[in-house]
Amino acid sequence: MRGARPERALDAVVRAAVRWERGSSVLVACSGGPDSVALAALLDRLAHEDGFEPVIAHVNHGVRDSADQDECVTLSVAARLTRRVIVARPSPGGDDEAALRDVRYAELAAAAAQCGAQAVVTAHTAEDQTETVLLALFRGTGLDGLAGMPVRRPLAPGVELVRPLLRVTHPELATELRRSGLPYALDPTNADRRYRRNALRRELEVLRESFPQLDRAVARCAQIVRDELDDTARAAGRRSLRERLRASDLLRDVSFAALEEELDRQQRAGKTIPGEREPGW
């Protein structure tokens, strides 16, 4: 992200996804890895400005040798941020991706209820969205799969799962991590090709050399599909603007990025759906 203060661009991304009331509690899922530690630092900064209370949560599955190290890193992060921390140690079960994910979300929902949080925030990034969309595509998906992970969805009664960083890349979060100076741990299982995501990651690393905007493009496409499925105001505005341009025989001359910038401009001006004024390209 460009500018002298790139952290402010990240702040804007989170605030565009969700804003919490002053005094409310927000549960921040932290594995101890670089992305989730960067998220904890980011929400800690926003909390000082916006007045909500982040609570850091860690789920120690105990299925790998470094599990206790990850927990220690998370405890250190919470201590340095002077934030409350909740650690869950569920009973050992299956070590496949789906089983671990289900247990993790159940524990996070329980931790949210424990501290009175109405939201659990995770550090899923644009790269994670790429993997999710491609894995769904390889399985033979419909539009729901192409929409990838939603920014927000219900997790449990009264608790929402929020993923505000789905269009943020690892390098952008790395800037936040360096700024914070917080410790983090690297997951040694990321090299284990038994997990489908890991096998896909190696191939994506090669593709990114030739297509450096790959993750941004997939995340953008997933959001467009999600907007259409949910019939959002953004989707209606996009269709309206495209129809106006098509009627004027201008659509082929306008890039998608320019179209989105115009929608952003009109949204800032308080127009949900494009009005009569012609876009200023």
Structure description:
The protein is an alpha/beta fold and 281 residues long. It has a domain at 6-194: HUPs (Rossmann fold), CATH 3.40.50.620. 54% of the residues lie in helices and 10% in strands. The chain has eleven helices and six strands. It has helices at 6-17, 34-50, 67-81, 97-115, 126-139, 143-146, 170-180, 196-210, 214-230, 233-247, 256-268, and strands at 25-29, 53-59, 85-88, 119-121, 152-156, 159-162. Strands 3-2-1-4-6-5 form a six-stranded mixed β-sheet, with helices on both faces. A hairpin with a 2-residue loop joins strand 5 (152-156) and strand 6. Helix 2 runs parallel beside helix 3, helix 2 packs across helix 7 (170-180) and helix 5 (126-139) crosses helix 9 (214-230). The longest helix has 19 residues, at 97-115. It is globular and about 60 Å long. The two termini are 23 Å apart. Residues 272-281 have low confidence and may be disordered.
Order of helices and strands: HEHEHEHEHHEEHHHHH
What's the CATH class label of the domain at 6-194? Alpha Beta
Sum up the overall morphology in one term: globular
**Low-pLDDT regions:** 272-281
Overall mean pLDDT score? 88
How many angstroms separate the termini? Answer: 23 Å
**Helix coverage percent:** 40-55%
Strand order of the largest sheet: 3-2-1-4-6-5
Number of helices: 11
What is the CATH fold-level name of the domain at 6-194? Rossmann fold
Radius of gyration: 20 Å
Report the strand count. Answer: 6
Structural class given helices, strands, pairing? alpha/beta
Q: Mind telling me which CATH architecture of the domain at 6-194 this is? A: 3-Layer(aba) Sandwich
